[in-house]
Design a protein that fits this description.
single chain, 9 helices
Length: 264
């Protein structure tokens, strides 16, 4: 318990984002489904990190320094806050994928239940898009994190062989895509037969996505990594512009503001 309290005191921003995820998810999916989403994504993320520090799959080989051992919670060599972060990152990307999904699967990705049922193909497409958006967050997150000794994260981990993208290997981004896509695909496989909300409320989750992005972008500016700042800002501005265009051109679908309707 002391180590868990230490994790909160060392990483308050992580747990603030986590609280935002719970609030946004409860409004969007319902509290039970939000907790289930976290229960699916968190162990998957932890397993991916545990595998990566031992075998290099799927993020590439990296090592935790262990400098905060005894001050925060580690689970089998993986900091608790690190794998926990994937839950709100995956959910935020999931919300963006559902809102920005182009036809024909936008309607069923946002709305299914007794009136509509998303097909497995729609769910796979939504999961793949979620993984992509999650990976695009990491375009800023991981390069800032490997420079953690220059800000309040601390020197938590390192890639022994470095990487071509601001010290991060490209395998790391493929790993983020994979974890995000598999986690959401698993959640969708559970949710689809049971019905979902007619409409859903992903707006708060989308706000969370950009709050995480802006937070990490501010960190890159604070430590003086202006090239990384410019790359991250440009990439996400292009993505946001494309999403706005898709949303404006697509016909309205779903009935916003309704609640989850569960099947027995």
């Amino acid at each position: 318990m002391d180590l868990l309290v230490g994790s909160v005191s060392l990483r308050p921003y992580v747990f603030l984002f986590m609280a935002a995820f719970l609030v946004a998810g409860a409004r969007d999916l319902g509290l039970r489904r939000t907790l289930l989403f976290g229960a699916i994504v968190w162990p998957l993320a932890w397993a991916a990190e545990f595998s990566s520090i031992h075998s290099g799959f799927p993020f590439g080989l990296y090592h935790y320094t262990g400098l905060t051992r005894g001050r925060e919670l580690y689970i089998a060599g993986v900091p608790f806050f690190d794998s926990l972060s994937f839950t709100f990152l995956a959910y935020a990307a999931y919300c963006l994928a559902r809102r920005g999904a182009p036809p024909p699967f936008r309607r069923s990705s946002l709305a299914c239940g007794s009136l509509l049922a998303a097909s497995p193909r729609d769910s796979i497409a939504t999961a793949a898009l979620t993984g992509f958006f999650m990976m695009m967050l990491d375009v800023v997150i991981d390069p800032a994190a490997v420079r953690g000794e220059r800000w309040f994260l601390g020197h938590i981990f390192y890639y022994p062989q470095g990487g071509v993208y601001f010290g991060v290997p490209l395998s790391n981004f493929a790993g983020w895509w994979l974890v995000g896509a598999v986690g959401v695909a698993a959640y969708e496989a559970w949710a689809r037969p049971r019905g979902r909300s007619e409409g859903g409320r992903p707006e708060a989750g989308i706000a969370l996505y950009y709050a995480v992005f802006v937070f990490n972008l501010m960190i890159t500016g604070w430590i003086g990594e202006w090239t990384l700042f410019a790359v991250g800002l440009t990439v996400h501005a292009l993505i946001a512009g494309a999403l706005v265009t898709i949303v404006r051109r697509a016909p309205a679908s779903g009935v916003p503001g309704t609640r989850v309707v569960e099947r027995a």
